[in-house]
Amino acid sequence: MRRPIHSVALINSFFENLPAEQREVAQSLQQAVMQAAQHLRQEVKWGNLCFQDNGENIIAIVLHKAQAHLQVFNGAQLAPRFPQLEGTGRGMRLLKCRYRQPIDQTLVAAITQASIEALG
């Protein structure tokens, strides 16, 4: 069984290998998530930066060509409180963040806290 790697060097390498506009958005999202919950464990999984709380996936930063997604693994529970979250289905929702546009760090922090609280 393969294990995700969470070393600081790998996380730094994740950012170093991104184009500048993706790096800015990804680092801004990472800062907002970690300021909201410093205890979260960061891992590079599936080529994305993921954040875990007690082994549970909480949030992931997923980078695409035109935008970044803040994937919230239990986002369906949070959708009534955060209408900015998009998606359908049983669990996951996402917050779209366009490159070269400011990140609403307060919103990202609130979503992070709510996601952790929803785990119980």
Please write the CATH class name.
Alpha Beta
Quaternary state reads single chain
User: Which stretches are low in confidence, meaning pLDDT under 50 for 5 or more residues running?
Assistant: none
Question: How many domains, in number, for the residues?
Answer: 1
The arrangement of helices and strands along the chain is HHEEEEHEH
Q: Got a strand count? A: 5
SS content category: alpha+beta
Q: Sketch the major β-sheet.
A: 5 strands, antiparallel
What overall geometry do the principal axes of the alpha carbons give? globular
What does this molecule look like?
The chain is of the alpha+beta class. It has a single domain, classed as Aspartate Aminotransferase, domain 1, CATH 3.90.1150. It has helices spanning 8-16, 20-36, 75-78, 105-119; strands spanning 41-45, 48-53, 56-63, 67-72, 93-98. Strands 1-2-3-4-5 form a 5-stranded antiparallel β-sheet, with helices on one face. β3 and β4 form a beta hairpin. α2 (20-36) packs across α4. The chain is globular. It starts with 7 loop residues before the first helix and ends with a helix.
In short:
This protein has 120 residues and is α+β, with helices and mostly antiparallel strands. The chain has a single domain (8-119), classed as Aspartate Aminotransferase, domain 1 (Alpha-Beta Complex), CATH 3.90.1150. It has helices spanning 8-16, 20-36, 75-78, 105-119, and strands at residues 41-45, 48-53, 56-63, 67-72, 93-98.
